[in-house]
Write a structure and sequence with these properties.
alpha/beta; 4 domains; Rossmann fold; plant defense; P-loop_NTPase; 5-stranded parallel β-sheet; NB-ARC domains-containing protein; ADP binding; 9 strands; Toll_tir_struct_dom_sf
Length: 437
Protein backbone atom coordinates (compact mmCIF):
# COMPACT_ATOMS: atom_id res chain seq x y z
CA UNK A 1 0.00 0.00 0.00
CA UNK A 2 1.30 3.47 -0.81
CA UNK A 3 2.63 5.59 2.03
CA UNK A 4 0.73 8.72 3.16
CA UNK A 5 1.65 11.90 1.33
CA UNK A 6 2.45 13.71 4.60
CA UNK A 7 5.78 12.30 5.90
CA UNK A 8 5.05 13.54 9.45
CA UNK A 9 2.26 10.92 9.73
CA UNK A 10 4.75 7.99 9.44
CA UNK A 11 5.05 6.06 12.69
CA UNK A 12 7.02 3.14 11.19
CA UNK A 13 9.74 2.96 8.56
CA UNK A 14 8.76 -0.56 7.49
CA UNK A 15 5.68 -2.77 7.71
CA UNK A 16 6.68 -6.46 7.48
CA UNK A 17 4.10 -9.03 6.45
CA UNK A 18 5.05 -12.70 6.76
CA UNK A 19 3.67 -16.16 7.38
CA UNK A 20 4.98 -19.39 8.79
CA UNK A 21 6.79 -20.49 11.94
CA UNK A 22 10.02 -21.32 10.12
CA UNK A 23 10.45 -17.90 8.56
CA UNK A 24 9.47 -16.18 11.85
CA UNK A 25 12.23 -17.95 13.79
CA UNK A 26 15.01 -17.56 11.23
CA UNK A 27 14.86 -14.98 8.48
CA UNK A 28 12.52 -12.51 10.22
CA UNK A 29 14.49 -12.57 13.48
CA UNK A 30 17.70 -11.76 11.61
CA UNK A 31 15.92 -9.08 9.59
CA UNK A 32 14.53 -7.29 12.64
CA UNK A 33 17.84 -7.49 14.48
CA UNK A 34 19.48 -5.82 11.50
CA UNK A 35 16.74 -3.17 11.40
CA UNK A 36 17.34 -2.44 15.09
CA UNK A 37 21.10 -2.10 14.62
CA UNK A 38 20.56 0.37 11.79
CA UNK A 39 17.89 2.39 13.60
CA UNK A 40 15.02 1.31 11.33
CA UNK A 41 11.66 1.34 13.15
CA UNK A 42 9.61 -1.61 11.87
CA UNK A 43 6.10 -2.82 12.69
CA UNK A 44 6.03 -6.52 13.50
CA UNK A 45 2.88 -8.58 13.74
CA UNK A 46 3.63 -11.92 15.41
CA UNK A 47 0.05 -13.12 15.11
CA UNK A 48 -0.46 -14.91 11.81
CA UNK A 49 -3.74 -14.00 10.16
CA UNK A 50 -5.94 -17.11 9.75
CA UNK A 51 -7.01 -17.82 6.19
CA UNK A 52 -10.29 -16.11 5.29
CA UNK A 53 -10.27 -13.54 8.13
CA UNK A 54 -10.19 -9.82 7.45
CA UNK A 55 -7.31 -7.53 8.35
CA UNK A 56 -8.04 -5.73 11.62
CA UNK A 57 -8.33 -1.93 11.80
CA UNK A 58 -5.11 -1.94 13.86
CA UNK A 59 -3.18 -3.52 10.99
CA UNK A 60 -4.71 -1.13 8.45
CA UNK A 61 -3.59 1.77 10.60
CA UNK A 62 -0.05 0.34 10.93
CA UNK A 63 0.21 -0.12 7.16
CA UNK A 64 -0.99 3.42 6.48
CA UNK A 65 1.49 4.83 8.97
CA UNK A 66 4.46 2.82 7.56
CA UNK A 67 6.96 4.03 4.90
CA UNK A 68 8.01 0.89 2.33
CA UNK A 69 7.77 2.68 -1.04
CA UNK A 70 8.65 1.10 -4.43
CA UNK A 71 11.99 2.89 -4.61
CA UNK A 72 13.09 0.98 -1.49
CA UNK A 73 12.13 -2.26 -3.20
CA UNK A 74 14.28 -1.22 -6.12
CA UNK A 75 17.25 -0.51 -3.86
CA UNK A 76 16.94 -3.91 -2.18
CA UNK A 77 16.75 -5.61 -5.58
CA UNK A 78 19.89 -3.78 -6.72
CA UNK A 79 21.79 -4.98 -3.68
CA UNK A 80 20.66 -8.56 -4.25
CA UNK A 81 21.72 -8.35 -7.91
CA UNK A 82 25.15 -7.09 -6.81
CA UNK A 83 25.60 -10.11 -4.55
CA UNK A 84 24.40 -12.56 -7.20
CA UNK A 85 26.53 -11.06 -9.98
CA UNK A 86 29.62 -11.30 -7.78
CA UNK A 87 29.19 -15.05 -7.40
CA UNK A 88 30.53 -17.94 -9.50
CA UNK A 89 31.07 -17.44 -13.23
CA UNK A 90 29.45 -19.44 -15.99
CA UNK A 91 31.97 -21.94 -17.38
CA UNK A 92 31.52 -24.01 -20.52
CA UNK A 93 30.06 -27.50 -20.25
CA UNK A 94 31.87 -30.74 -21.09
CA UNK A 95 35.13 -29.63 -19.53
CA UNK A 96 38.02 -32.07 -19.58
CA UNK A 97 41.18 -31.84 -17.46
CA UNK A 98 40.34 -28.34 -16.13
CA UNK A 99 39.90 -29.42 -12.50
CA UNK A 100 43.24 -31.24 -12.70
CA UNK A 101 44.93 -28.03 -13.85
CA UNK A 102 43.33 -26.03 -11.04
CA UNK A 103 44.65 -28.55 -8.52
CA UNK A 104 48.05 -28.50 -10.20
CA UNK A 105 48.34 -24.75 -9.65
CA UNK A 106 47.41 -25.15 -5.94
CA UNK A 107 46.62 -21.46 -5.52
CA UNK A 108 44.96 -22.07 -2.14
CA UNK A 109 48.50 -21.87 -0.70
CA UNK A 110 48.28 -18.09 -1.17
CA UNK A 111 45.06 -17.61 0.84
CA UNK A 112 45.79 -15.68 4.02
CA UNK A 113 49.32 -14.83 2.92
CA UNK A 114 51.04 -11.72 4.22
CA UNK A 115 52.07 -10.87 0.64
CA UNK A 116 50.39 -9.94 -2.62
CA UNK A 117 50.87 -12.67 -5.23
CA UNK A 118 50.74 -12.16 -9.01
CA UNK A 119 50.34 -15.23 -11.24
CA UNK A 120 50.45 -15.43 -15.05
CA UNK A 121 48.74 -17.96 -17.33
CA UNK A 122 50.01 -17.98 -20.92
CA UNK A 123 49.46 -19.91 -24.15
CA UNK A 124 48.23 -19.45 -27.71
CA UNK A 125 44.63 -18.67 -28.61
CA UNK A 126 41.96 -21.28 -27.97
CA UNK A 127 44.08 -23.43 -25.66
CA UNK A 128 41.84 -22.72 -22.65
CA UNK A 129 43.43 -19.85 -20.69
CA UNK A 130 40.11 -18.08 -20.02
CA UNK A 131 38.33 -21.32 -19.11
CA UNK A 132 41.06 -22.17 -16.61
CA UNK A 133 41.00 -18.64 -15.16
CA UNK A 134 37.21 -18.86 -14.66
CA UNK A 135 37.53 -22.25 -12.98
CA UNK A 136 40.20 -20.82 -10.67
CA UNK A 137 37.96 -17.85 -9.86
CA UNK A 138 35.01 -20.12 -9.06
CA UNK A 139 37.10 -22.30 -6.76
CA UNK A 140 38.62 -19.38 -4.83
CA UNK A 141 36.37 -16.30 -4.82
CA UNK A 142 34.78 -17.14 -1.45
CA UNK A 143 38.16 -16.77 0.30
CA UNK A 144 38.43 -13.05 -0.54
CA UNK A 145 36.57 -10.00 0.70
CA UNK A 146 36.59 -8.42 -2.75
CA UNK A 147 36.72 -10.07 -6.15
CA UNK A 148 36.52 -9.18 -9.81
CA UNK A 149 36.90 -11.07 -13.10
CA UNK A 150 37.68 -8.67 -15.96
CA UNK A 151 36.93 -10.65 -19.11
CA UNK A 152 38.64 -9.85 -22.44
CA UNK A 153 40.66 -6.85 -21.27
CA UNK A 154 42.19 -6.46 -24.72
CA UNK A 155 38.81 -6.42 -26.48
CA UNK A 156 37.08 -4.14 -23.96
CA UNK A 157 40.01 -1.71 -24.12
CA UNK A 158 39.86 -1.65 -27.92
CA UNK A 159 36.09 -1.12 -28.04
CA UNK A 160 35.42 1.09 -25.01
CA UNK A 161 38.76 2.21 -23.61
CA UNK A 162 40.85 1.18 -20.61
CA UNK A 163 38.78 3.35 -18.26
CA UNK A 164 35.87 0.94 -18.80
CA UNK A 165 37.93 -1.91 -17.32
CA UNK A 166 38.87 0.29 -14.37
CA UNK A 167 35.19 1.15 -13.82
CA UNK A 168 34.38 -2.56 -13.83
CA UNK A 169 36.92 -3.07 -11.04
CA UNK A 170 35.40 -0.23 -8.99
CA UNK A 171 31.89 -1.62 -9.37
CA UNK A 172 32.85 -5.16 -8.39
CA UNK A 173 35.43 -4.54 -5.66
CA UNK A 174 34.52 -1.14 -4.23
CA UNK A 175 30.78 -1.80 -4.68
CA UNK A 176 30.18 1.58 -6.28
CA UNK A 177 28.69 2.51 -9.62
CA UNK A 178 28.68 6.26 -8.99
CA UNK A 179 32.44 6.75 -9.07
CA UNK A 180 33.31 8.50 -12.33
CA UNK A 181 36.75 8.94 -13.87
CA UNK A 182 37.79 11.02 -16.86
CA UNK A 183 41.13 9.40 -17.71
CA UNK A 184 43.18 6.24 -17.28
CA UNK A 185 45.62 8.04 -14.98
CA UNK A 186 42.76 9.16 -12.74
CA UNK A 187 41.48 5.59 -12.59
CA UNK A 188 44.94 4.32 -11.71
CA UNK A 189 45.11 6.84 -8.87
CA UNK A 190 41.80 5.54 -7.47
CA UNK A 191 43.06 1.94 -7.64
CA UNK A 192 46.21 2.89 -5.71
CA UNK A 193 44.22 4.77 -3.08
CA UNK A 194 41.29 2.43 -2.50
CA UNK A 195 42.17 -1.14 -3.49
CA UNK A 196 44.45 -1.71 -0.49
CA UNK A 197 41.58 -1.80 2.02
CA UNK A 198 40.94 -5.56 1.85
CA UNK A 199 42.36 -8.77 0.33
CA UNK A 200 40.99 -9.23 -3.17
CA UNK A 201 40.94 -11.77 -5.99
CA UNK A 202 41.45 -9.97 -9.32
CA UNK A 203 41.57 -11.77 -12.68
CA UNK A 204 42.63 -9.74 -15.73
CA UNK A 205 41.84 -11.94 -18.71
CA UNK A 206 43.63 -11.56 -22.06
CA UNK A 207 45.95 -8.64 -21.43
CA UNK A 208 48.19 -7.84 -24.38
CA UNK A 209 50.29 -4.78 -23.61
CA UNK A 210 52.20 -3.08 -20.83
CA UNK A 211 49.82 -0.12 -20.61
CA UNK A 212 47.00 -2.39 -19.44
CA UNK A 213 49.16 -3.96 -16.73
CA UNK A 214 50.43 -0.60 -15.49
CA UNK A 215 46.94 0.92 -15.41
CA UNK A 216 45.15 -1.99 -13.70
CA UNK A 217 47.70 -3.77 -11.49
CA UNK A 218 50.99 -1.94 -11.81
CA UNK A 219 52.52 -3.13 -8.55
CA UNK A 220 51.81 -5.47 -5.61
CA UNK A 221 52.04 -2.38 -3.41
CA UNK A 222 48.65 -1.23 -4.73
CA UNK A 223 46.82 -4.10 -3.02
CA UNK A 224 46.22 -5.44 0.47
CA UNK A 225 48.40 -8.33 1.72
CA UNK A 226 46.68 -11.61 0.98
CA UNK A 227 45.45 -10.44 -2.43
CA UNK A 228 45.85 -12.66 -5.49
CA UNK A 229 46.15 -11.12 -8.96
CA UNK A 230 45.91 -13.42 -12.00
CA UNK A 231 46.71 -12.44 -15.60
CA UNK A 232 46.08 -14.43 -18.77
CA UNK A 233 48.06 -13.52 -21.88
CA UNK A 234 49.42 -14.92 -25.12
CA UNK A 235 52.83 -13.29 -24.63
CA UNK A 236 55.00 -14.90 -21.96
CA UNK A 237 57.53 -12.06 -22.11
CA UNK A 238 54.82 -9.53 -21.20
CA UNK A 239 54.16 -11.45 -17.98
CA UNK A 240 57.85 -12.03 -17.35
CA UNK A 241 58.65 -8.32 -17.67
CA UNK A 242 55.85 -7.50 -15.21
CA UNK A 243 57.72 -9.61 -12.64
CA UNK A 244 54.87 -11.96 -11.82
CA UNK A 245 55.68 -14.56 -9.18
CA UNK A 246 54.89 -17.58 -11.35
CA UNK A 247 53.98 -18.24 -14.99
CA UNK A 248 51.83 -21.28 -15.80
CA UNK A 249 52.21 -22.28 -19.44
CA UNK A 250 49.11 -23.98 -20.84
CA UNK A 251 49.78 -27.31 -22.52
CA UNK A 252 47.74 -29.03 -25.20
CA UNK A 253 45.57 -31.94 -24.08
CA UNK A 254 47.12 -35.39 -24.20
CA UNK A 255 45.59 -37.81 -26.69
CA UNK A 256 43.16 -39.50 -24.29
CA UNK A 257 41.80 -36.27 -22.84
CA UNK A 258 41.55 -34.84 -26.36
CA UNK A 259 39.57 -37.87 -27.52
CA UNK A 260 37.24 -37.52 -24.53
CA UNK A 261 36.62 -33.81 -25.20
CA UNK A 262 36.02 -34.45 -28.89
CA UNK A 263 33.67 -37.35 -28.15
CA UNK A 264 31.61 -35.31 -25.67
CA UNK A 265 30.94 -32.76 -28.40
CA UNK A 266 30.66 -35.11 -31.40
CA UNK A 267 28.71 -37.97 -29.77
CA UNK A 268 27.42 -36.61 -26.45
CA UNK A 269 29.40 -39.23 -24.54
CA UNK A 270 32.99 -39.81 -23.45
CA UNK A 271 33.88 -42.37 -26.12
CA UNK A 272 33.35 -42.49 -29.90
CA UNK A 273 30.50 -44.45 -31.41
CA UNK A 274 31.82 -47.76 -32.73
CA UNK A 275 31.38 -47.15 -36.47
CA UNK A 276 32.98 -43.69 -36.28
CA UNK A 277 35.98 -44.65 -34.15
CA UNK A 278 38.64 -44.60 -36.87
CA UNK A 279 37.51 -41.21 -38.20
CA UNK A 280 37.43 -39.82 -34.66
CA UNK A 281 40.96 -41.09 -33.99
CA UNK A 282 42.30 -39.44 -37.16
CA UNK A 283 40.61 -36.10 -36.49
CA UNK A 284 41.82 -36.01 -32.87
CA UNK A 285 45.38 -36.78 -33.97
CA UNK A 286 45.23 -33.98 -36.55
CA UNK A 287 43.88 -31.40 -34.07
CA UNK A 288 46.75 -32.16 -31.68
CA UNK A 289 45.01 -31.56 -28.36
CA UNK A 290 43.73 -28.03 -29.13
CA UNK A 291 40.59 -27.67 -26.91
CA UNK A 292 38.74 -25.08 -29.01
CA UNK A 293 39.32 -26.99 -32.25
CA UNK A 294 38.19 -30.25 -30.68
CA UNK A 295 34.94 -28.62 -29.54
CA UNK A 296 34.28 -26.75 -32.79
CA UNK A 297 34.91 -29.71 -35.09
CA UNK A 298 33.15 -32.13 -32.73
CA UNK A 299 29.99 -30.04 -32.65
CA UNK A 300 30.03 -29.56 -36.41
CA UNK A 301 29.95 -33.35 -36.88
CA UNK A 302 27.33 -34.17 -34.24
CA UNK A 303 24.59 -36.34 -35.79
CA UNK A 304 26.16 -36.24 -39.28
CA UNK A 305 26.48 -39.18 -41.65
CA UNK A 306 29.58 -41.25 -42.36
CA UNK A 307 29.97 -39.49 -45.73
CA UNK A 308 30.11 -36.08 -44.02
CA UNK A 309 32.74 -37.36 -41.59
CA UNK A 310 34.90 -38.59 -44.48
CA UNK A 311 34.53 -35.28 -46.28
CA UNK A 312 35.38 -33.23 -43.17
CA UNK A 313 38.52 -35.27 -42.51
CA UNK A 314 39.78 -34.57 -46.04
CA UNK A 315 38.72 -30.93 -45.92
CA UNK A 316 40.44 -30.21 -42.60
CA UNK A 317 43.88 -30.82 -44.08
CA UNK A 318 43.25 -28.52 -47.05
CA UNK A 319 40.78 -25.85 -45.89
CA UNK A 320 41.11 -24.98 -42.19
CA UNK A 321 37.90 -24.35 -40.26
CA UNK A 322 37.17 -20.58 -40.39
CA UNK A 323 35.95 -20.41 -36.77
CA UNK A 324 39.21 -21.88 -35.53
CA UNK A 325 41.29 -19.67 -37.81
CA UNK A 326 39.43 -16.57 -36.60
CA UNK A 327 40.44 -17.44 -33.04
CA UNK A 328 44.08 -18.11 -33.92
CA UNK A 329 44.61 -15.16 -36.27
CA UNK A 330 45.09 -12.44 -33.57
CA UNK A 331 48.25 -14.22 -32.44
CA UNK A 332 49.71 -13.48 -35.87
CA UNK A 333 48.15 -10.05 -36.35
CA UNK A 334 49.69 -8.77 -33.11
CA UNK A 335 53.25 -9.41 -34.31
CA UNK A 336 55.58 -6.75 -35.69
CA UNK A 337 56.01 -6.85 -39.48
CA UNK A 338 59.50 -8.42 -39.43
CA UNK A 339 58.27 -11.00 -36.92
CA UNK A 340 55.36 -11.86 -39.22
CA UNK A 341 57.71 -12.41 -42.15
CA UNK A 342 59.97 -14.73 -40.19
CA UNK A 343 57.02 -16.64 -38.75
CA UNK A 344 55.77 -17.35 -42.27
CA UNK A 345 59.27 -18.29 -43.46
CA UNK A 346 59.65 -20.77 -40.60
CA UNK A 347 56.15 -22.20 -41.15
CA UNK A 348 56.83 -22.65 -44.86
CA UNK A 349 60.25 -24.22 -44.77
CA UNK A 350 61.92 -24.70 -41.40
CA UNK A 351 59.61 -26.88 -39.31
CA UNK A 352 61.65 -29.89 -38.26
CA UNK A 353 64.92 -28.06 -38.91
CA UNK A 354 67.59 -27.29 -36.33
CA UNK A 355 67.05 -23.88 -34.70
CA UNK A 356 70.62 -22.67 -35.21
CA UNK A 357 70.64 -23.73 -38.85
CA UNK A 358 67.32 -21.98 -39.49
CA UNK A 359 68.60 -18.83 -37.79
CA UNK A 360 71.75 -18.84 -39.90
CA UNK A 361 69.74 -19.05 -43.11
CA UNK A 362 67.18 -16.46 -42.04
CA UNK A 363 69.64 -13.99 -40.53
CA UNK A 364 70.27 -10.78 -42.46
CA UNK A 365 71.92 -7.43 -41.88
CA UNK A 366 68.73 -5.81 -40.61
CA UNK A 367 67.28 -8.48 -38.33
CA UNK A 368 68.32 -10.84 -35.58
CA UNK A 369 66.85 -14.22 -36.36
CA UNK A 370 67.57 -15.67 -32.92
CA UNK A 371 65.85 -12.76 -31.14
CA UNK A 372 62.76 -13.06 -33.36
CA UNK A 373 62.61 -16.81 -32.84
CA UNK A 374 62.53 -16.14 -29.08
CA UNK A 375 59.58 -13.76 -29.58
CA UNK A 376 57.71 -16.42 -31.55
CA UNK A 377 58.42 -18.96 -28.80
CA UNK A 378 57.17 -16.53 -26.12
CA UNK A 379 53.93 -16.14 -28.10
CA UNK A 380 53.55 -19.94 -28.36
CA UNK A 381 53.61 -19.79 -32.17
CA UNK A 382 56.59 -22.13 -32.36
CA UNK A 383 58.36 -24.43 -29.94
CA UNK A 384 61.95 -25.66 -29.80
CA UNK A 385 62.53 -29.29 -28.97
CA UNK A 386 64.62 -29.62 -25.82
CA UNK A 387 66.35 -32.76 -27.06
CA UNK A 388 67.56 -31.77 -30.53
CA UNK A 389 66.73 -28.04 -30.81
CA UNK A 390 64.39 -28.68 -33.78
CA UNK A 391 61.73 -26.08 -34.58
CA UNK A 392 58.17 -27.34 -34.13
CA UNK A 393 54.72 -25.84 -34.73
CA UNK A 394 51.18 -26.92 -33.90
CA UNK A 395 49.38 -28.24 -36.96
CA UNK A 396 46.59 -25.67 -36.69
CA UNK A 397 49.03 -22.77 -36.45
CA UNK A 398 50.85 -24.08 -39.51
CA UNK A 399 47.50 -24.27 -41.30
CA UNK A 400 46.88 -20.64 -40.37
CA UNK A 401 50.27 -19.73 -41.85
CA UNK A 402 49.41 -21.62 -45.02
CA UNK A 403 46.18 -19.63 -45.35
CA UNK A 404 48.02 -16.34 -44.87
CA UNK A 405 50.56 -17.27 -47.54
CA UNK A 406 47.73 -18.19 -49.91
CA UNK A 407 46.09 -14.82 -49.26
CA UNK A 408 49.31 -13.08 -50.26
CA UNK A 409 49.72 -15.24 -53.35
CA UNK A 410 46.23 -14.21 -54.50
CA UNK A 411 47.18 -10.52 -54.25
CA UNK A 412 49.09 -9.27 -57.33
CA UNK A 413 52.68 -8.31 -56.60
CA UNK A 414 52.70 -9.92 -53.15
CA UNK A 415 53.92 -13.42 -53.97
CA UNK A 416 57.12 -13.74 -51.97
CA UNK A 417 57.44 -17.32 -50.72
CA UNK A 418 56.46 -20.82 -51.75
CA UNK A 419 54.92 -23.46 -49.53
CA UNK A 420 57.51 -26.22 -49.00
CA UNK A 421 58.27 -27.13 -52.60
CA UNK A 422 60.69 -29.95 -53.38
CA UNK A 423 63.05 -27.42 -54.98
CA UNK A 424 63.20 -25.40 -51.76
CA UNK A 425 64.00 -28.50 -49.75
CA UNK A 426 66.76 -29.34 -52.23
CA UNK A 427 68.29 -25.90 -51.73
CA UNK A 428 68.09 -26.29 -47.93
CA UNK A 429 69.86 -29.64 -48.12
CA UNK A 430 72.55 -28.11 -50.29
CA UNK A 431 73.07 -25.32 -47.74
CA UNK A 432 73.34 -27.91 -44.98
CA UNK A 433 76.13 -29.70 -46.85
CA UNK A 434 77.98 -26.42 -47.46
CA UNK A 435 77.63 -25.33 -43.83
CA UNK A 436 78.63 -28.74 -42.49
CA UNK A 437 75.41 -29.38 -40.53
Amino acid sequence: MAAPSDPHRWRYDVFVSFRGEDIRKSFIDHLFNDFKQKGIYAFRDDNELPKGEEISPRLYKAIEESRYESKFIGNISKEIVKVISNGPLDVAENLVSVDDRVRELNLLRFVGSDKVHMIGICGFSGIGKTTLAKAIYNSMYTYFEGRCFCDDVQGVTKRQGLTQVQMQMFAKILKTETLQISSVSEGTKVIKQRMACKPILLVLDDVNDLEQLEALAGSPDWFSPGSLIIFTAKDKQLLRSHKVDEIYEMKILDYYNALELFSLNAFGKRHPTEYFEEFAFQIVRYLQGHPLALKVIGRSLYGKSMEVWKSELDRLQTYPNPNIQQKLRPSFDGLASDHKRMFLDIACAFIGENKDFAASVLASSNCSANAIIEVLVDNSLITVSATNMFLQMHELIQSMAREIVCEKVDMPGNWSRMWISSEFHDSLNENKVLSGT
